[in-house]
Write a structure and sequence with these properties.
- By secondary structure, this protein is an alpha+beta fold.
- The protein has eight helices and 15 strands.
- The strands form four sheets. A five-stranded antiparallel β-sheet has the order 11-10-9-12-15. Strands 2-1-3-4 form a four-stranded parallel β-sheet, covered by helices on one side. A four-stranded antiparallel β-sheet has the order 5-8-6-7, covered by helices on one side.
- Helix 1 packs across helix 8.
């Protein structure tokens, strides 16, 4: 019988509720699937036929320990999904620079390495931005993320200096469209599965539910799906394959700013998609909005084994 470990975090040892349908789908297909805490050093990962990385939502707070764990998985005689090389690349948000070089539309960004001396006021002046979002290159859930206006650059310089003393940092032009909603389009084995729009609460820019955001199931137009699929293709090409087992492509559309790129197949205006992140390590996959999504991922996984 196939035995699969679903890697999770110590504070959610039974997985998150949203993953329940995926777990059930595996068991319905005769698979022994068990949640296993990634940071438990007693685990022998090689005893599983596969390890699927799921809700390891504390990894960014323990980056060195996490990197060592990925190395152990890579050395174990088991299939790891997504693959260790994919995880190593995706854990550090400077991967956006690689995708930009491949023609993916990304937010205008300053990539700042740890210890660099960067003046916020100069970034605003040189880029002509009015607002930015600064965040660590290894982070999740808006961890140590701050929205900064040009008029507050001097006051926030000490905060940035402190962050740069510890981590690589991204300084990005604030995306006005985020307040209207951020798309998350989910792909399994390169094929589109389902999508949601995440919206921040009034007066905030963070779309995560932990920060008061909301999630609504919505159906993207063909153009938006195609552009998100192009992101998955760019990832696959950047890493020289294989296609990720699961990928969540997060971004905003430029419709609010009038950047139309044609007409969609349903007759609506096609809008340009701007990538915020592509999540390949531990994304919430919003199984709850599509009753068949757990089964689709289970089938895609078993096709790999």
């Amino acid at each position: 019988m196939t035995t699969i470990a679903l890697a999770t975090a110590a504070d959610m040892p039974d997985l998150v509720d949203d993953d329940a349908s995926f777990l059930a789908a595996l068991r319905e297909r005769g698979v022994t699937a068990v949640p296993v805490v990634w940071s438990d050093k007693s685990v022998e990962w090689g005893r599983f036929d596969a390890v699927v990385i799921r809700s390891i939502w504390d990894y960014y707070r323990r980056p060195d320990e996490f990197a060592a764990w990925v190395d152990r998985l890579d050395a174990a005689s088991t299939t790891v999904l997504n693959a260790p090389e994919t995880v190593r690349w995706n854990r550090h948000k400077f991967y956006l620079r690689d995708l930009d070089a491949r023609g993916v539309s990304t937010l205008p960004t300053e990539y700042v390495e740890r210890g660099d001396d960067v003046a916020l006021a100069e970034v605003f002046a040189e880029r002509g931005w009015d607002e930015v979002v600064a965040k660590p290159a290894v982070s999740a859930g808006a961890f140590r993320t701050k929205r900064i206006a040009r008029t507050d650059a001097a006051d926030e310089q000490a905060w940035l200096d402190n962050l740069l003393g510890e981590r690589d940092v991204l300084i990005q032009q604030f995306a006005d469209g985020i307040t209207d909603g951020e798309w998350s389009l989910v792909f399994f084995d390169g094929a589109y599965s389902h999508g949601v729009v995440k919206r921040p609460k009034a007066g905030d820019f963070r779309v995560q539910e932990d920060h008061g955001g909301s999630v609504d199931a919505e159906t993207p137009g063909a153009s938006l799906r195609d552009q998100a699929a192009d992101v998955v293709d760019a990832v696959t090409n950047e890493l020289d394959g294989p296609v990720p087992l699961y990928a969540r492509v997060d971004g905003i559309t430029r419709e609010e700013r009038g950047s139309k790129i044609g007409t969609d197949s349903d007759g609506s205006d096609a809008t340009e998609f701007e990538l915020l992140e592509v999540e390949l390590i531990e994304p919430e996959l919003f199984f709850r909005v599509d009753d068949d999504a757990g089964g689709r991922l289970a089938d895609a996984l078993l096709d790999r084994l």
